[in-house]
Specification:
The protein has 6 helices and 11 strands. The protein is of the alpha/beta class. The longest helix has 15 residues, at 37-51. The protein binds adenosine monophosphate (AMP).
Length: 249
């Protein structure tokens, strides 16, 4: 059984993002980039399934610039087996990613595809759901626990007020939530070994997919600066200010 994991190269979660001076997007020059944190969880989960002998091979796919190869290498160093880089300089939106992943699934025929629930750069939370619709495969989104049980996949999801457990027929699409696992760090020997693991290099045209963006970003702006707070002398003063200055009650 094969697992396919989608990994996106995004601005590192520790970086304080800056908006470009022309408001056309986020400043990416000299900014630290890393694997999307939810995708690290996806890679970790696939490795745990392999260690439990539930799957035999883990393929990681990344779509983006040449540098996305580093993201694939990180996944290979964690324990994935091989990579596919679909290289493009064009901005890539969730529908195009889902269409490309669909063709990869048609070719590789994985039983399980694991994605992050969202990429922390665009916060779209769309790709897994779109891929499930395109393939007509079952989906378990925001998974906090998964178990393969014969031809089924048991997926536990955190929902308002409790946990929901779904029984899905394989093949299936899973998107990871934060509490699914804690991703491992790659050891030095594994980083060295990963250099020898194969990465196939492709272009979107090889898959016959038109990746022209469907959405146009009109403007990106910084959130308004927070104003300094104040200390009030009494509750009646607080109520007065909430009523007459903030006008929220
Ligand atoms: P999104 O729908 O953009 O929030 O992304 C959800 C998930 O889809 C991510 O966590 C990744 O697993 C996958 N994904 C999105 N964009 C890409 C990409 N360019 N390359 C590889 N995987 C991606």
């Amino acid at each position: 059984m094969k697992a396919l994991v989608a990994v996106k190269r995004v601005v590192d979660y520790n970086v304080k993002v800056r908006v470009k001076s022309d408001n056309s997007g986020i400043e990416l020059t000299n900014v630290k980039m890393s694997m999307n944190p939810f995708d690290e969880i996806a890679v970790e989960e696939a490795i745990r399934l392999k260690e439990a002998n539930k799957i035999d091979e883990i393929i990681v796919v990344s779509i983006g610039t040449k540098q996305s190869q580093e993201t694939i290498r990180t996944a290979l160093a964690m324990g994935a087996d091989r990579g596919i880089l679909i290289e493009t300089e064009t901005e890539i939106q969730p529908l195009s990613v889902a269409k490309l992943l669909k063709v990869v699934c048609d070719e590789e025929k994985p039983e399980i595809v694991i994605l992050g629930k969202q990429a922390i750069d665009d916060d779209a939370n769309q790709t897994g759901q779109m891929l499930s619709a395109l393939l007509n495969w079952s989906q378990g989104t925001f998974a906090s626990k998964i178990e393969i049980d014969g031809n089924n996949l048991m997926v536990t999801r955190e929902i308002d007020g409790g946990l929901e457990t779904l029984k899905l027929a394989l093949p299936s699409i899973i998107t990871t939530d934060l509490r699914l696992n804690e991703p491992r760090y790659a050891s030095l020997p594994n980083i060295m070994k990963a250099k020898k693991k194969p990465i196939e290099e492709k272009k979107p045209e090889d898959y016959g997919v038109d990746i022209t963006p469907r959405l146009t970003t009109l403007k990106v702006v910084e959130p308004p600066k927070r104003e300094a707070g104040m200390i009030v002398e009494s509750i009646s003063e607080l109520v007065d200010k909430l009523k007459n200055e903030a006008k929220v009650i």
